[in-house]
Request: fold
Amino acid sequence: MRAFLAGAQIQLRFLRAYPDAAIPFFTAPMFSVIFQMVFRHAGREDLTPYAAIAPVFIALWWLALFNSGWTITMERWNGTIEMLVAAPSSFAAVVFGRITTTTLLGVVSFFETWLVARAIFGTKITIYHPWAFYATVFVTLFAMAGTAVAMASLFVLARNAVTFSNSASYPFYVLGGILVPVSFLPHWIRPVSAVVFLSWSADLMRAALQAAPMHEFWFRLAMVAMLGAAGLLVGLYAMRVILTRVRGTGELGTT
Amino acid sequence: MPAVDVQEIRRIFTPRKREPVVALDGVSLAIPAGEVHGLLGPNGAGKTTLVKILSTVLLPSGGRAFVGGHDVVTETEAVRPLIGIVFGGERGLYTRLSARQNLEYWGALYRLSGAQIKQRSAELLERVGLTERADQRVEEFSRGMKQRLHLARGLMGDARVLFLDEPTTGMDPLAAREFRALINQLKGEGRTILLTTHDMVEAETVCDRVTLIDRGRILATETPRSLGSLISRFQRIDVEDAPREVLEAIRAIDGVSSVTTLEDGTVRIEVHEEGATTLVLKELVDVGVTAVKTSLPSLEEVYVQVIGDRGLTV
Reply:
């Protein structure tokens, strides 16, 4: 727990020292404008929940994924990764603390996105099922951070994790049905989408913004939690295995 | 029980599409608690590789190593709280954070409580003379200040065994002297220190014993005093266009070990006694030979001769 908190505290300090890590807070409102305009032009006001949720998910996922890559790369560039691994605290717990902090701050993008939708287009976003919505947000943030730890363990193997993490974001936007519904994707890709927690949580959040009753809420929420927990457990285990491997190859500090 | 015990450690790196490189080839070393031990050798000798293995961040290809009696491969959780690592150079610090923030972070990673972190970071900043700059970004620090902060960081966990990997690299002489004074203070506290360096003066100033290492093999372990006298005894003189009869006279001087002609025609004269160099130079200058260059042999060359003379085994 102490390692997690140490990671969280240092991440807050890094965010002040490296403001470029906050780019999604500037891009999220822009995406909101683009998506709102596209749907309005197409006469599909019924897709407003997609326009309201998609920029937030893009911001949250980008923050989680980019920070997992950036964390590993920065420690390598700094020459601190070997000292971190040699410290008594768990390296994976520190990374989890850092990613969780950034992801939690990503909640700000909800307010930005919806404020822009209201100010520019007069679109009012109503949360019809508030408790379901808040619960989904909470579990989604955990799943984001957990999955990002799994990605971070892979980034330890990559020489330039930032490039890898940048390119890894788009497949998840598609598979998660963040903007384009999963039902529009080819049949063969849907089973893959079902194991991506984003697809479950995006569906739930959109459902919470619609007046219709929510079906199978607890089951769907449990799927988000389970996939997130699986990501975290795989990440923690993979981090241990991969660190042992790079200690063997001598590539831990290699940039 | 030695604080650091290295037994027949081997480390082979296998780069992609290249031949394997033997970085350490059966290194054995025992460092008693409280000793400042120098690991002296040229670049690529295997010094940093050994430090990385002892720091638990690199696995050996063979052999075993213990810190505080714990195996560095199988008991990393017991080893890590005992050690502090200080690397030389610009890297190893978060330059956009302040000195205090750097130390606080490492204190948390060494599982100190909030109060302990505050107290220890303040004490260490005072000790390394950075209290006035504690809240300044590290990127504004000089090389010497960064190195002192490195040392403070390595001490946040109150390590009993410190690995200092070329800590004075790139420092100006004054900063290096101050840093060595700090190492002497740490020695006074009974900490065990393994210091890697390729600077003979540094080894002589702070180390109780020095191990010479080259190409992954230990050449010898001595006190710095014996090393210093050995090196000053052995010298070599390269001469161009010296008359044959003068070279014969030089060969007869006491303390001259050999007179050999190299492939490019230069004659190399090697001496093994203090004062012999002066006599050789006098002979040469008397007959007007001025194309003369004197140099010290490499540490390895000295040791090969010394070990041969003493009949010791490496």
Chain A has eleven helices and no strands. Residues 2-248 of chain A form one domain. Chain A has a mean pLDDT of 85.
